# Entry
Amino acid sequence: MDNRSFSSKKILLTTGILGMLLPFILTIGTQFFECKELQNAISTYYHTNMRDFFVGILFAMGITFFCYNGYDKYDKIASWFASISIICIAIFPTNNESTCLFGLKLNISNTSSYLHNISATTLFITLAVMCLFLFTKSTPNPTEEKKVRNKIYKSCGIIIFASLIFLAIYMNTNILRLQFGHWKPVFLFESIMLLAFGFAWIV
# Structure
């Protein structure tokens, strides 16, 4: 393994770790600015003092995905989809305001919020597809280690898809939003999806 290969693997590993740590970095970071309340969604932290961290980490992940070649053209296409989606999430913020703005209140258009939601949905669908159909590719006679890894990839992909389905139902059902809104389910399941994909990516 040459230095370039080693460096590439370190960058990919760092990207996976950043994705997994993003929810924790944002929530812990706001504690230093007396913003104790958990926000409704990860994207809502754009409207807190952690905005620069939120955007910076997303751009770092987006650039890594764009540069990732994978093993065939399908890996590359999926990586481009993920890259564009991540960068759009950063560029087009949600209008779901934070409970602790600290003078950072912005007038976010409905168009920006719509593009943000489309990009987030596209991202998580892409990540699920990568786990279920791309990471699991193997030779006709995979090793036992590869079979174990494939089980991990499939489990992570199923977790992401199941989380997406729950969020779709939750966001479109007023009763569920009234009953469970105080649990911050959007933030919770977004975090679960990031953890699932980050774990699969590292594996």
The chain has seven helices and no strands. Helices lie at 3-31, 51-67, 73-91, 110-134, 144-171, 174-180, 185-202. Residues 19 and 162 are 19 Å apart (CA to CA).
